[in-house]
Amino acid sequence: MAIYKYCDKSSSSFTINIPNHHPHYFTFSMASSRRFSIFVSFLLLSFLLDLTSAVPRKLFSLVQQQPLILKYHNGPLLKGNITLNLVWYGNFSPIQRSILVDFLQSLNSHTHMPHSVSSWWQTIQKYKGVSCTLAVGNQILDQDYSLGKLLKSSDIVSLASKSKHQRNEINVVFTATDVGVEGFCMSRCGTHGSTQSKWAYAWVGNSETQCPGQCAWPFHQPIYGPQTPPLVSPNGDVGIDGMVINLATVLAGTVTNPFDNGYFQGSANAPLEAVTACTGIFGSGAYAGYPGEVLVDGTTGASYNAVGVDGRKYLLPAMWDPQTSTCKTLV
């Protein structure tokens, strides 16, 4: 039996007893049946390590970076036509839902525009055994908070189970700003995992009112580290644009390491995956607390590096490229 303590914003707490389903909390991971989390601690550590205050930045260019290797552990990967079934838990406006759905539809839009969302996703095709297209399937709205506003990890799996679940589907749960989730803002911004019956799920929360400095950076000043001005979010919604970053992260991890034996570095209980291995990098020249050089909209001043359907703009994280063994950015 695993015991977890949850603390809300008022500092009150409650203890949750959870049957031992081999929980793996790690840099971007947790598991009841092997679930993976976006590792907030790793991001915070990158902010804490403000090495630039002690060492001139020019010296960093003299240090030869070691290749970053994600080993393939010979397990099954997700491939073919993958359906994304969405569960919206809590209140999301139609505009907020459209931002996230447009991002998902942009992954396979095959546009020839420079810096397209689909070109970001094409890096996935370089992973051995991965060749997939994503399409949005069923959408379920749970605006009545059927499980309350404080969710355990097992509740996320229950919500994901509301939609049909098959091997070629990923059920994605989105939680609204007023929903607390076990570990949210303390160790993770989202998760991905699978059940014993081998169907995949993912979860991402809206951090705008709870921890935007952790889960919506660089659109909000970080809690720790260099307090540089935040970037302007491309869709005018800090929480939702932060969710896009975290959604991109968990989707890449789900496809390339769905069952704990795909592509990752380190321990299977605490793996670095396709995007979590490149945390905090959005453009060239990125370093601790600085996202890198990105594009700026001349009219709105918003920062972005990817363009999706109908010209919608997004900021997407770097992804590990298996051909070059480096973190690849769109700009």
Shape: globular
The average pLDDT value, as a whole number, equals 84
What about the largest sheet? Answer: 6 strands, mixed
Sheet with the most strands: spatial strand order: 3-10-11-8-5-6
Helix content: 10-25%
Number of helices: 6
Structural class: alpha/beta
Structure description:
By secondary structure, this protein is an alpha/beta fold. Helices cover 18% and strands 24% of the residues. It is built from six helices and 18 strands. It has helices spanning 40-48, 94-106, 117-121, 153-160, 212-215, 238-256, and strands spanning 2-7, 13-18, 35-39, 71-72, 80-89, 132-142, 150-151, 169-175, 180-181, 188-194, 200-205, 263-264, 295-296, 303-304, 306-307, 313-314, 319-321, 326-328. The strands form seven sheets. Strands 3-10-11-8-5-6 form a six-stranded mixed sheet, with helices on both faces. Strand 1 (2-7) and strand 2 (13-18) form a beta hairpin. The radius of gyration is 19 Å and the shape is globular. The N and C termini lie far apart (46 Å).
